[in-house]
Design the sequence.
């Protein structure tokens, strides 16, 4: 029981760290993109170590293939075609396709 409690506590810290690292990556990107890449690597190693999934809004902000921090319009090309979002990393050319579910507005 106490072990589980401790793990939860650790997870929260890990989440906070990932959050800080990604915000930092975003901030540094225009001037020091190589630092942003480092932050991405750190974030990914945290998520692997603690077996955590990255927060939703940060998914797709880095390349799973080359570990670079991606910014739409800079080194990331996002395209919406039909029900699919395709993201192309312009650093290594890696392409990711994610099904896109549109929220129906019935009002
Ligand atoms: Zn890439």
Sequence:
């Amino acid at each position: 029981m106490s072990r589980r409690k401790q793990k939860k506590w650790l997870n929260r810290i890990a989440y906070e760290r990932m959050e800080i690292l990604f915000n930092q990556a975003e901030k540094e990107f225009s001037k020091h993109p190589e630092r942003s890449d480092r932050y991405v690597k750190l974030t990914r190693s945290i998520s692997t170590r603690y077996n955590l999934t990255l927060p939703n809004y940060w998914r797709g902000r880095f390349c799973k293939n080359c570990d670079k921090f991606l910014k739409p319009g800079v080194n990331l090309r996002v395209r919406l075609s039909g029900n699919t979002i395709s993201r192309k990393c312009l650093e290594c050319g890696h392409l990711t396709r994610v099904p896109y579910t549109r929220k129906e507005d019935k009002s």
About this structure: The longest strand covers residues 76-81. Helices lie at 2-28, 33-49.
